[in-house]
Amino acid sequence: MLAYLIRRLFAAAVMLVVIVMVVFSIFFLIPKWAGVDIATSFVGKQADPSSVKAVAEKLGLNDPIYAQVWEFFKGIFVGRTYSAGGDVTNCSAPCFGYSFRSEQAIWPVLTDRFPVTLGLALGAAVLWLIFGLAAGVLSALKRGTLWDRGAMVVALAGVSLPIYFTGLLSLAVFSYGLGWLDAQYVPLEDSFTGWLGGMILPWITLAFLYAAMYARITRATMMEILGEDYIRTARAKGLRESVVIRKHAMRSTMTPILTMLGMDLGALIGGAILTETTFSLPGLGQAVLNAIKNQDLPVILGVTLITSLAVLIANLVVDVLYAVIDPRVRLA
Amino acid sequence: MTAPLHEPTAEAAPSAAEEAAVAGAGSKAVQGRSLGRIAWERLKRDKLALTGGVVVLVLVAIALLAPLITHLVGQDPEAHHEDLIDPLFGTPIGSLGGISGDHLLGVEPVSGRDIFARIVYGARISLLVGFLSAIVAVVIGTILGILAGFFGGWVDSLISRIMDGLLAFPQLLFIIALVSVMPNEMLGLTGTGVRLFVMILVIGFFGWPYIGRVVRGQTLSMREREYVEAARSLGAGRFYILFKELLPNLVAPIIVYTTMMIPTNILTEAALSFLGVGVKPPTASWGQMLSSAIDYYDSDPMYMVIPGVAIFITVLAFNLFGDGVRDALDPKGSR
């Protein structure tokens, strides 16, 4: 078990390094290959060569890429020192550097925005697990009934609706039309009810999409498992149907669901870009979208690292949970 | 989606005909049916899937005939009609976003561009990106998946690691980053052309591991089968076995995953254009229309509803058809 964890963590660390290098390559090699100078894009096309040079110097764009990558990692673990034209700035660990545009430190931006995204993802996940699993299991058990058909039609519509459309619709109807809910985001520490009111629409919108996906997969998996031999055996030895469903069928159904949950939750915690844009939530997704549009490399690197870390941790937790749910799985 | 397709499934059409001929020579009662024909017969009974398929065909026709259709209604997707716009609010004059005999679905706020013409042209973008990126994913995924499954060893470990890595990547983030960092001119393309080209490549590139994993698994389970051994003992080379013996048996899962990938890709393209990194105005795309509609969701709700419904109908049609194809090709299903 311990050896397994160490191996997985090592693989995760390698993955993070690869991701950071890919981000660096995207932002340095592609413009270079296309003949675009990054420093120029920060001062504007009419700028004189000396100010372009000064900007490149200040942002550290002149160093070779491997040196920049190295400095980036060093900053996270031991902090780094910036010196530009006589000014010396100390950035203590964990240092993710400063925004190219606003010159703010990245780390506080990340810690500010992370709770917003985390709240969105976790709240929605609770909703979609409850409704998605319940609908899927019921449909599988009552296959072919009116309930099954109705639920599957709704689920199919759910996976075919883009989230930014359902989000805008719900805003137009419930927030603007009926005036039930305020579309404003209120931080949790300011007012709990205000936060709750602002999060209800994003939660429901996000959960609707995922509940639809989970209901479809749960139904399909459950139906396949109900046809397995060991279910027949369980029934043959006289177990009550409720026990067969709960202890035999549900357990196996949970395995693929858990895999999906790990990936989806990880991806969402790293920034629900579309939901945050639609509802103007000040989360990581919104931050990274703005950063990409502004070519603000340090912010992109910071969010990407958090995102990837979230995905990797979620996957690791899921794999460990497998062993708990499915007795056939041994971690080695 | 999870149904394993273990049996040698899709057979090429000529062999189906031969089979039928052989069966017909013996007795009329028993007729051999290839899986392709069984699947088609099942699909024909599936009303929902057929409806989806018909809608897909109609959409393809609309996309192909876009210039003709807009010419027939006498509208241009990029022509401005500022006389139809209320100068005070910037919203269209008239009810329901300015719907009239001339402008079947109304006009856009501020510019007054005809929404019907833009929806028709938007179908081109959606379907083009949806289909071509799926083809990119299928080609890469099939080749690498079959190589990984067939050769095993270090080839397999390398390809499998890359697939795991790509699946754990924050995909949307990287797609956005890659699309937005591309220059405005390259390889003789400019503006929208570059963006479409890059979107197709990038969406396809992040999609191939989904197909690759399935193809690898199938190849792995098939390469020790008797018919492969038979071919090998007859002196067949590696590439003959790969492409003549294994590939035909992979056609069914590949078709299933391709039909399921197209709607996802259409949604990704719409999302990119919605976020402002995909297709940009004046070129019409559904996602971009939705994103401009954000500012008018209270004053001109029709502007938001129309492209949203267009995306919904398209993706729903592909999903219905895809579900039907999957059920039809499932060897476990009832005949």
UniProtKB/TrEMBL annotation, chain A:
GO process annotations (BP): transmembrane transport
Locations listed in the record: Cell membrane
InterPro entries per record: BPD_transp_1_N, MetI-like, MetI-like_sf
Residue ranges annotated for the ABC transmembrane type-1 domain, each copy included: 114-322
Signal peptide positions (record): none
Key words of the record: Cell membrane, Membrane, Transmembrane, Transmembrane helix, Transport
Membrane-topology annotation of the record: Multi-pass membrane protein
Domain of life, per lineage: Bacteria
Transmembrane segments: 9-30, 118-141, 153-174, 194-215, 257-279, 299-325
Family classification: Belongs to the binding-protein-dependent transport system permease family.
Name of the protein: ABC transporter permease
Organism placement in taxonomy: Bacteria, Bacillati, Actinomycetota, Actinomycetes, Kitasatosporales
